[in-house]
Amino acid sequence: MGMKTLVLGLVALRCVYAKDSVSFDFDTYGKDDASGAPYQTFKSNADVKPPQMQINKNETGLADGLVFVGVDGAPTSGQNWPTIWDFSPDRLGTLVWTGNYTEPFDFRTQTYKGEPVLTFWSGELLDGYGHGSYYILNQSYAEIAHFSAVGYEELSDLHEFTITSDDTALVIIYTPKQADLSDVGGEKDGWIFDCIFQEIDIASGKLVFEWNASTHVGVNETVNELGDAGSEGSPFDYFHMNSVLKDANGEYLISGRVMDAVFKISSSGDIIWRLGGKQSDFDVADEAVFAFQHDARWVDGNQTRMTIFDNGPTDAVGYSRGLLFAVDQDAKTVSLIHEFYNGAKTFAKFEGSLQVLDPSSSDTNYFLGYGNQPFLAEFSSNGTLLLDAQFGATNTVNGYRTYKLPWTGKPITTPDIHLDTDAHTAYVSWNGATEVQWWDVYSANATNGTWRYAASANRTGFETSVELGGVSLGTYLRAKAVNGSGGALGWSRATDGKGLFDASGDVDEKRNNTSSSSTVSTTARATGSSATVAAATSATSGLAVRIGRGMVEKVVVAVVVVALV
Ligand SMILES: *[C@@H]1O[C@H](CO)[C@@H](O)[C@H](O)[C@H]1NC(C)=O
Ligand SMILES: *[C@@H]1O[C@H](CO)[C@@H](O)[C@H](O)[C@H]1NC(C)=O
Ligand SMILES: *[C@@H]1O[C@H](CO)[C@@H](O)[C@H](O)[C@H]1NC(C)=O
Ligand SMILES: *[C@@H]1O[C@H](CO)[C@@H](O)[C@H](O)[C@H]1NC(C)=O
Ligand SMILES: *[C@@H]1O[C@H](CO)[C@@H](O)[C@H](O)[C@H]1NC(C)=O
Ligand SMILES: *[C@@H]1O[C@H](CO)[C@@H](O)[C@H](O)[C@H]1NC(C)=O
Ligand SMILES: *[C@@H]1O[C@H](CO)[C@@H](O)[C@H](O)[C@H]1NC(C)=O
């Protein structure tokens, strides 16, 4: 097959699938919503409106960690914000945190200066690239760094924000450059988008390394079609760099989407090899052939296995896949170990990611994000689908890459509370707090009065409702967020059901509410169901629960005392 036929073949195939890019639509999710992106609202916090997560499949065996989704596109809620989700069995698909940063890309946790941090790009999304900047938040969700590409401040692109073990950042820039386009049927004095990657020392802002595609890779290697592009106002996107990482040898691995290739770059900038594409140095096994890929990563320091998100389509495969490759850099061969795809065999035309959740284990789970399609999935090591979820209807909102990672959030805000006096229910939440095991609610007759224990409820998700029927209350209510060992993490302001007030005064920790109405059984409380516990439940239920939760002895004793009263 001649070069031209190959190019046209790929482009034609891509168009066919692009037109039909409707992956399977589960149920009627999103159909009632004008934009197909249903969202949630909460009584205690009116500022956050995350997507409604739909679970299409959930099996046991999910890995630990929280799920990171930068919601992009135009959700009905208007909140294309970074979001963190809990997929533990008791809180499957519930929000942990969201924050006001528009159009986040590559949202995840990384390590910076030895601390766990949140990192992402935020800015303006253009046609396949972006103009924005890079943010680092600490565990309290406070910004501790905010920077741009060096010398291209306005052109800081969205595709990559990786922090290396040297606390440098790897980022990408799309910049117009004059180029000869005659190889693709264009003008001799045409224009391309050059793709540059930079390694930047974050603390000093100094440039450590810079590499650009145009110096090393010819326009004749692209599989993209020129179309109407090629002018200064509309440069030809001939390379489309969309991932960069640096290994322990100081060499870089980059992905060129419309090259259908992954490149290894030496520390002096030379191309060591091309994997895939028109000038592949590797023999790629038929079932491992990929196209328009994203997110090329080594699994570990061995560099014997690599993962990519294969958007496709290829001649053989019409759906998108996460691919785990065996790569032999000496023999120059690539074979397929596993492919990963969801129940719908979704085709995601652009964006996407595959994450190895525990690179040190052969028994690791894998996490797949479908990029421009609002789907995510988790798999066991043999490729069995364990979790299949979506955060919008097909072809609505996006999530550039999704990750599952450990994270402890300790917000510096105070918890939020809303009291519905008619429903005898308090609603409590704390955006980003991961350590809250349950909520204790206290009441007082004055905001500076004595706060007496009223009721408790296990944290059930972003917002927990605390049932107050049958509990005798004062005028005001406050909630205390409690961690797994019984320690107070924070207090909400006080509410009388109409307004919020600063509160002070003594706290009477005794479970001295006289109500005898127990609204819940021991099992419900101990398993963390959405049911709630009023004060002064029976001795056995109170004890069983407290011990089960590993509370300090002192508190267990307090419960016994209450029970004896
Ligand atoms: C988000 O931030 C923007 C800009 O600061 C502000 O105008 C907007 O009101 C904020 N939205 C919410 C829901 O906090
Ligand atoms: C997860 O699966 C369990 C067991 O099949 C089911 O009871 C539960 O409702 C599912 N959770 C969600 C959120 O779909
Ligand atoms: C995060 O930074 C803020 C502002 O500098 C600081 O108040 C807070 O203590 C920091 N949180 C953590 C966990 O380091
Ligand atoms: C690309 O790299 C070459 C050589 O390293 C350099 O001369 C050129 O200025 C760079 N171009 C851009 C647009 O950065
Ligand atoms: C592109 O052009 C370069 C320089 O002429 C040549 O070495 C290379 O083989 C060409 N590649 C393709 C795919 O045509
Ligand atoms: C390299 O691979 C071997 C086996 O394939 C494994 O035992 C070892 O832990 C790996 N080393 C690294 C650094 O990942
Ligand atoms: C794959 O792993 C799952 C557990 O995650 C197990 O139930 C299943 O039997 C395994 N399948 C094969 C073919 O080994």
In short, what is this structure?
By secondary structure, this protein is mainly beta.
What does this structure look like?
It is built from five helices and 37 strands. It is mainly beta and 565 residues long. Strands 29, 30, 32, 33, 36 and 37 form a six-stranded mixed beta sheet that branches. Bound molecules: 2-acetamido-2-deoxy-beta-D-glucopyranose (7 copies). One 2-acetamido-2-deoxy-beta-D-glucopyranose (NAG) is lined by residues 47, 100.
Shape: elongated
Continuous helix count:
5
Q: From the alpha carbons, calculate the radius of gyration and give it in angstroms.
A: 27 Å
Taking the alpha carbons of the first and last residues, their distance comes to 88 Å
Unreliable stretches, pLDDT < 50, 5 or more residues? 1-25, 513-565
Instruction: Name the hetero compounds present.
Output: 2-acetamido-2-deoxy-beta-D-glucopyranose
Provide the helix percentage: under 10%
The overall strand count is: 37
Class from secondary-structure proportions: mainly beta
Largest sheet: 6 strands, mixed
Beta-strand share of residues: 35-45%
Taking all residues together, what is the mean pLDDT?
87
Oligomeric state of the chains present here: single chain
Topology:
Elements: H1 3-19, E1 54-58, E2 66-70, E3 82-86, E4 94-98, E5 105-112, E6 115-125, E7 130-137, E8 143-147, E9 162-163, E10 168-179, E11 190-201, E12 207-212, H2 213-216, E13 241-246, E14 252-256, E15 261-265, E16 271-276, E17 283-284, E18 294-298, E19 305-310, E20 321-328, E21 333-340, E22 353-356, E23 366-369, E24 375-379, E25 385-390, E26 402-405, E27 416-420, E28 425-429, E29 438-444, E30 451-458, E31 463-467, E32 476-482, E33 488-491, E34 494-495, E35 500-501, E36 507-508, H3 522-526, E37 533-534, H4 539-548, H5 553-564
Helix pairs in contact: 4-5
The protein binds 2-acetamido-2-deoxy-beta-D-glucopyranose (7 copies).
